[in-house]
Amino acid sequence: xxxxxxxxxxxxxxxxxxxxxxxxxxxxxxxxxxxxxxxxxxxxxxxxxxxxxxxxxxxxxxxxxxxxxxxxxxxxxxxxxxxxxxxxxxxxxxxxxxxxxxxxxxxxxxxxxxxxxxxxxxxxxxxxxxxxxxxxx
Length: 137
Known about the structure:
Helix content: 25-40%
Distance between the termini: 24 Å
Number of helices: 4
Shape: globular
Strand content: 15-25%
Radius of gyration: 15 Å
Strand order of the largest sheet: 1-2
């Protein structure tokens, strides 16, 4: 575990960003947890989102067309999606790659909080597939 996501959560929530972690895995699928399991997992991982939302029916995930985990979606205070995609430009699980990566999320949030338009509003997310209810994988 790199701790990168947890660091980002703490950094941005300290600046007033509301950070939701959404768990859309269906019961019986990889990644599924109930509320107690989610609380234990978040504590074990040192996660620091504003809140974690359980979405076992996939309603929230499908409404944002989420296909991978993580998939980062930034919504401005007016309810408009201003960024949707990967956390960074290095689709690897090698912790050494984080330092040299362009962190799309940091850039988008920095631009948005500075009152500027987000220059890169969408990228291709990468990671494990979301295990929705009724999906075959």
